[in-house]
């Protein structure tokens, strides 16, 4: 790994944490630079301005987590098997990139104010992939006709709220005796429940 790549990776790692914790407006380039042990000029030279840095952090997290999801879709599995693999692939991706749920939640609240078109395009690709699985299931006679976006939110929404609500449930006394989060970022029991719920939701009634 050359020096330039090492600098970029360090900047991306620090910037991801700052954008996740403080949002686009709250993150400060000077603080990112200081924590990454570089000067602001180095960030602008190696990556670009704040908007460019934000876009690259988002897209990098997506590529690292979801870049191989097409392998699930293009396999010879049945639609049911593909959907289960797809759900579990998303869970693993979010576990590897815990900053992504925070950043996506902030974009939801701001109506995508700072979301780059390239990242929106990545989401559309995932929706297209999910649609292909659902259509295959319908053709196989095992899935009912369902709305892709609703199923997408059942998967992503449940996982993201599980991850982002855990610190609240750990911190607030009202949750001290019940509704505590299970150990882990996304516990296996939670992934299993989400998988079962989604498979039931799309199942065609006999």
Attribute tags:
mainly alpha; Arc Repressor Mutant, subunit A; 206 residues; 10 helices; 2 domains; Tetracycline Repressor, domain 2
Shape: globular
Kindly report how far apart the N and C termini lie.
Answer: 57 Å
Tell me the major beta sheet.
none
Give the H and E element order. HHHHHHHHHH
SS-based class: mainly alpha
Gross CATH architecture of the largest domain: Orthogonal Bundle
**How large is the share of residues in beta strands?**
under 5%
**CATH superfamily (homologous) name of the largest domain:** Tetracycline Repressor, domain 2
By DSSP (H or I, 4+ residues per run), the number of helices equals 10
CATH topology descriptor of the largest domain: Tetracycline Repressor, domain 2
Describe this structure in words.
The chain has helices at residues 3-26, 29-35, 40-46, 50-66, 69-73, 79-96, 99-109, 117-140, 148-171, 188-202. The chain has 206 residues and is mainly alpha-helical. It has 2 domains: 1-48, Orthogonal Bundle (Arc Repressor Mutant, subunit A), CATH 1.10.10; 57-202, Tetracycline Repressor, domain 2 (Orthogonal Bundle). Helix 1 packs parallel to helix 7 (99-109) and helix 6 runs parallel beside helix 9 (148-171). 25% of the residues are buried.
